[in-house]
């Protein structure tokens, strides 16, 4: 089996890239031959250093480094990216099992879709967000600070001033979504959802495309070292970009009311606002090793109170694996992994709803028991690299068999109905 994984970066600068890297490593350790194609020039994570992984760098710039006009044009249809990808694919040996895409919004653009489908191998895309349907990618009204309820690309959607940056960015993103829809029209794309909520939500938005839907959890890289000790912690921890849609402000407000410190590992637009609040410590970005060294000794729980429909934030899974309770938003796909009242709490993304959960965790015995339960649940059904790789190998095998059978039909096949794997 030979699989091509495509991402725009080869470093774990975000959740999608991290999943791409870990998928590649897990597959290689399972004996699968992997070619990892990165679009943007830059260093590669050492995790890709494996005899079973071949890395190809297309040496493209991040489109937003080209300036606003050239960047917008490239974001709509990046011909250079398409040409370089086509040349890279031509150079690969015959018998590719499938092409698995993780990102296309920073440099690849919709222009790569005809290239991928023209190769002949089945095409798979993991949906880490909602960009396949929603222009701003997160199905969230930044102008209102609430999840969107509009049908993507409808008249109401086009008129909504929902973009986090500017109306001009909304115009560009709408155009890109339209071009993406055209590039995928009639082409049998397999999509992988990383949570049940995403499968139910975005699956209903894409009935106009011939998609086949599958469901596979994100992988979690093993956390080296001792398990967490939540009873010893003095703070509610938050890890990630400090934004309102991710609920960073809610953590600070609710922790203060619950009589606990709030510890933030990350940076973002709310950084100055958070630093000015009493009982708040902002540590900035840290390496993964530093993050978990800090959380093992400082955190009573990890909080992830996203206001938007987040799909599968990896920090939640990592916290549970490390034996740390989690307080998650009921809008987040990660809440599916939290047992309410046992391994943490699932609550609405509201400060008043978070306060009772944080207050309950002030009890040393309860915090310790939840941490043990989280670790035990993880041990019973780990979302580690080997488990993820087994799911992918099974998926690729079934897709390959179906693709081979379909290629022998003399008449075009109708679009397949969307069924979870």
Automatic annotation (TrEMBL):
InterPro entries: Glyco_trans_1, Glyco_trans_4-like_N, Glycosyltransferase_grp1. Residues 235-377 form the Glycosyl transferase family domain. It holds the Pfam family Glyco_transf_4. Residues 14-135 form the Glycosyltransferase subfamily 4-like N-terminal domain. PANTHER family: SULFOQUINOVOSYL TRANSFERASE SQD2. This is Glycosyltransferase involved in cell wall biosynthesis. It comes from Methylobacterium persicinum.
């Amino acid at each position: 089996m030979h699989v091509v994984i495509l991402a725009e970066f080869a470093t774990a600068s975000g959740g999608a890239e991290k999943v791409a890297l870990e998928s590649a490593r897990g597959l290689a350790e399972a004996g699968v031959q992997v070619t990892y194609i990165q679009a943007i020039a830059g260093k590669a994570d050492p995790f890709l250093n494996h005899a079973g992984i071949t890395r190809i760098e297309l040496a493209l710039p991040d489109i937003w480094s080209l300036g606003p006009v050239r960047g917008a044009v490239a974001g709509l249809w990046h011909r250079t990216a398409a040409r370089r990808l086509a040349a890279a694919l031509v150079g690969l040996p015959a018998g590719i099992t499938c092409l698995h895409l993780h990102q296309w919004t920073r440099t690849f653009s919709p222009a790569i879709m005809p290239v991928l489908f023209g190769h002949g191998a089945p095409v798979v895309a993991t949906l880490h967000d909602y960009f396949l349907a929603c222009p701003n990618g997160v199905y969230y009204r930044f102008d209102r600070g609430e999840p969107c309820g509009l049908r993507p690309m409808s008249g109401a959607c086009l008129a909504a001033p929902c973009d986090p940056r500017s109306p001009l960015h909304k115009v560009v993103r709408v155009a890109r979504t339209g071009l993406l829809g055209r590039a995928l029209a009639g082409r049998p794309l397999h999509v992988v959802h990383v949570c049940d909520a995403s499968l139910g939500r975005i699956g209903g938005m894409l009935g106009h495309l011939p998609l086949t839907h599958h469901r596979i959890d994100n992988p979690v890289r093993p956390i080296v070292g001792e398990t967490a000790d939540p009873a010893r912690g003095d703070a509610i921890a938050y890890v990630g970009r400090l934004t309102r849609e991710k609920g960073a402000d809610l953590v600070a407000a609710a922790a203060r009311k619950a009589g606990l410190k709030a510890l933030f590992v990350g940076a973002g637009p709310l950084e100055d606002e958070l630093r000015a609040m009493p009982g708040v410590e902002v540590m900035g970005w840290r390496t993964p090793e530093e993050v978990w060294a800090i959380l093992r000794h400082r955190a009573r729980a990890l909080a992830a109170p996203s206001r938007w429909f987040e799909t599968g934030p990896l920090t939640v899974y990592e916290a549970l694996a490390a034996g740390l309770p989690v307080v998650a938003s009921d809008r987040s796909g990660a809440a599916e992994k939290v047992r309410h009242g046992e391994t943490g709490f699932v609550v609405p993304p509201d400060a008043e709803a978070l306060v009772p959960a944080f207050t309950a965790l002030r009890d040393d015995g309860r915090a310790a028991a939840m941490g043990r339960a989280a670790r035990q649940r993880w041990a019973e059904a780990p979302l580690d690299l080997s488990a993820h790789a087994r799911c992918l190998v099974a998926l690729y095998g079934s897709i390959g068999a179906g693709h081979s059978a379909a290629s022998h039909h003399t008449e075009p096949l109708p679009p397949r109905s969307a069924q979870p794997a």
